[in-house]
Amino acid sequence: MTITKQAPTSAASRTLAGPGSFIHNVLGNNIAPIAIALIAVSVVLSFMTPVFFTAGNLSNIVTQSAVVGIAAIGATFVIITSGIDLSVGSNIALSGLAGAIVGQSVNGIMGVLIVLAVAVAIGAFNGVSVSWLRLAPFIVTLAVMGMTRGLTLQFSQGQSVYGLPTALNWLGSADLFGMKVSAILTVILFVIAHLVLSRTTFGHRVFAVGGNAEAARLAGINVKAVVFSTYVIAGLCAGIAAIILLGRLDSATPNAAIGTELNVIAAVVIGGTSLFGGKGSMVGTFIGVLLIGVINNGLTLLNVSAFFVQFVQGALIFLAVLLDALNNRRVRNLRA
Amino acid sequence: MRSARKPLLSVAGISKTYGPNEVLSGISFSLEPGSITGLVGENGAGKSTLIKILAGATAPTAGAVALNDVALPTTTGAVIEAGVSVIYQELTDIPDMSLLENVLLGNLASTWGVSRKRLNRERASQSLHKVGLGDLDLGTPIRELSISQRQLAEIARCLVRDAKVLILDEPTSSLPEADVNNLLTVIEGLRSEGLCILYVTHHLSELFRIADRLIILRDGRMVGDAPISEWNERLLVRTMLAKDLENAYPWVPRDLGDELLAISGLQAKGVEGGTLSIRRREIVGLVGLAGAGRTELMKAIAGVNPVKSGTITIDKRSLRPGKLGAARRQGVIYAPEDRKTEGLVLNSSISSNIAFGNYGPISKFGVLNPKAMTQRAVDFAGKYDIRFRSPQQAVGELSGGNQQKVILARINETHPKVVLFDDPTRGVDVGAKWGIYEHIFNLAANGAGILITSSDTDEVLAVSDRVFVLLGGKVVAEFKRDEFDRERILHLASVANASNED
Question: What is the pTM of this model?
Fold first, then answer.
């Protein structure tokens, strides 16, 4: 960059396609390619199977994406701070189980509260470990993933808990205005999360911490508190996802949500949030969640084997990580 | 001059454009073996781009580079193979490997994949001798060496690869004075061995000491190319900046107030008893060699690093030492030495970087006002002369001087009582230094107390009302501006048994 060629700033010097413009921001966040991919896949699918582009099926996609989607909201906060949360799947299982047991023996409302409390506690444990104990997020959440899954199996003795009170089932099974409550809730939560991330000082701090933690600290941002909060948010989101899963299955199973963390991370990364931290958006994550949902749905409608579906998901993650790395390198080359 | 020799490296009509920006335009020169050519220019003049082209890291838009009349390869690996090596500002060694392994990095001689120990040791020590490191044990982990030794080891690495052209990009920016001399001697030795050296630096005195010839870039064009005998410092600055620079440090006497900050017996990592004071409207300098604890003392005062013992008083109220939050609430702010790793979030926009940690003016109940954020950046651009295309531009794209001004703006707007500036003009060119100091002087004039340090002692002396000399983490002497004695201060900063003085 040559300073001499940079015109002194004026409102007029901002152009439509220049840096800082709408187009640049969208491309810079990697949203445009993924949005195009989502549209392209949807168009192809609607030609290949008439069922795809029906209101029922589209709403079905959002409903089926609810668990991954809500968990991905929390994961987006965590990943922007350059952290990671692998424990989300087993968090869903343990908090769900705890809520189901309490729900059956006390009442549904109490069950809901217990699900959220357990999920937030697990998130807080992750958060304390990462921020105050300064442990590596990958290892901590991997350990917590093992611990929580182990506790789930121990408490349940490998047995599912069937037949839950209505209050606990409502979120995951009820309908409202002809749509599933879980689908509506997912969209609402995404809107709220988007506003928090892009319009609040908290969201701004999250980006600062992910972009350069030391600079953020010296600028007076409480880095540990910010990092801690993102893991708590991730825990809270896992709890909401757990309630939806309970309602959908009308049961808590010890093997619930196994491998969900991979889908969640995939959705976030495909949505343009950088694993290197400091970059990302809720809009991107939402599109990422939809893309994975649409592809799963399409492959099912086309009767593709479940084994191959897993391959496609893996390939998607690979592609997303590749794009992330390439984009990072391009940015760094510009700066060097 | 050795102009009779056949040129080794020739650059013919090189231009480079990034999008609409022409960064280099029609650069032509040739370098002979056994010569040192200085390359100078302001930040953003195109030096880095030129180095990148010579290193094969980027291709020119037009023009060609030839080594011994053969076109230079287009990949970095092949360029090194061909004999052109670049020593970058930051070390590129592998800290956990030994000196031997680092010098022979990627270049171990082997038979059938088995390393040929004796041959390798010979090759390494031969090169290390040429850079004056012949006495070191080849097995020493390189992390145990000093920064300047590691830098010399990097030069040795290039020699092992049979470099004919050596490009040094600001090699002295992080070296203490004694090591700079040593490095310059080594470079002169390499010239007599027939190497062709391109030396890039902001330190003009170094050029006058070793260069045979100077090439000056401005706005991507070559605006000067002549033997060293035809240059003097004044002419050089005028050519670089296209204007005279009468006084790089606009110091004016200020009416100093009462004592604002007092530190006594501070003990922390790298600090062995820091005792000093700062008055209102006063600029206090810290002089010390690299490793004397300048950064450590500042970080301890500001609570960035934990403090073992000692007291800090601000405005006659005691401050709990070693607590960043407490220090900031009392208006004690540290401006870090390393902009890129400690000062800024490079990927974030300029408006965001200004906002970090100071959301008051641009938010309500935790909700940001994007319009106010942008407006603030635009206002600051005028107030602090920060040059950028758009407030949404990533701060990492700005030049070093402009980045520093973003940090300055952010600090100024918190209305601090005491600011600790750790090498605020590091890697900033002469022209931008003036602008940065202008704001620091304003800050002081408005009532703040300033503690400042720089790797350039002359700069500290030029801007300070009073200096403290640091040695081995201890404050060993204090001088008022009218008592400044450069030789004496430097002596105290480098001698262990200096007696205390007033």
Answer: 0.72
